[in-house]
TrEMBL record:
Subcellular location: Endoplasmic reticulum membrane; Membrane
Name of the protein described by the UniProt record: Protein-S-isoprenylcysteine O-methyltransferase
Keyword Mitochondrion: no
Membrane-related topology note: Multi-pass membrane protein
Length: 230
């Protein structure tokens, strides 16, 4: 679970509890309802994401390796075996570079959160028997930095794989104008719906668990993901 924690406070709970998205406030009810509607399929989404992203990365890498072959070998084929068109324009663009940097930064933030939380980090929304509140490292700046890393990862992958010059938009199934934008929008809606719902539910649970101490921490660190933004 991603939560803000402290290296100074530790409380023992009688049992492990699950947090439900139904606890979300009124201003997030629409996002919570959409998340609950697709909840039975949530556990499969990360695996689907990984398969698609690894496949796209592999195909883009294969296409690049093919460009290193001698010209007479490549010209013997009317189209690349890893590309659906004969003259694609797969290339490195500024958006691709920005995407790679954002993905690397997001990965670093998430790994640092894993280290900061240790055994308290779980992918399910739960409270462990020896839960602690941590306010160090990235948790000193935002209350949910692991989600900050996830947002940066999604942004980076979108910039690098769903922008002009990528394999998906030049060779793959997103060659049709506007199709990449539709996928990008759907991906962002999903990410924000899940992130906002979980962040709010976690805040509620931490407030119940740590009470006044959590209120002090939340007052000192008012931002969820990005200081000054949200």
């Amino acid at each position: 679970m991603h939560t803000a924690q402290s290296h100074t406070v530790e409380r023992t709970l009688p049992h492990r509890r699950n947090v439900h998205l139904a606890d979300c406030p009124h201003h997030l009810q629409s996002l919570s309802l959409s998340t609950l509607f697709i909840a039975p399929h949530v556990e499969h989404v990360p695996q689907i994401h990984q398969i698609i992203l690894w496949a796209c990365t592999a195909l883009e890498t294969l296409y690049y390796l093919q460009t290193l072959l001698p010209a007479h070998i490549v010209s013997a084929y009317s189209a690349s075996p890893v590309c659906l068109v004969s003259q694609p324009s797969v290339r490195t663009t500024p958006l691709f570079v920005i995407g790679v940097l954002a993905a690397v930064l997001g990965t670093y933030i998430r790994v640092d959160c894993f280290k900061a939380l240790g055994e308290l980090f779980t992918f399910d929304l739960t409270v462990l028997p020896t839960h602690k509140l941590v306010t160090k490292r990235f948790y000193a700046y935002v209350r949910h930095p692991a989600y900050t890393g996830s947002i940066l990862l999604v942004a980076g992958l979108a910039f690098s794989h769903l922008s002009e010059g990528s394999w998906l938009t030049e060779c793959g199934p997103l060659r049709k104008p506007g199709s990449a934008i539709v996928v990008w929008a759907a991906w962002w809606i999903w990410t924000l719906a899940v992130g906002l719902s979980r962040a709010d539910a976690e805040d509620k649970q931490m407030r119940k668990l740590f009470q006044g101490e959590w209120d002090t921490y939340a007052a000192n660190v008012p931002w969820w993901f990005f200081p000054g933004l949200i």
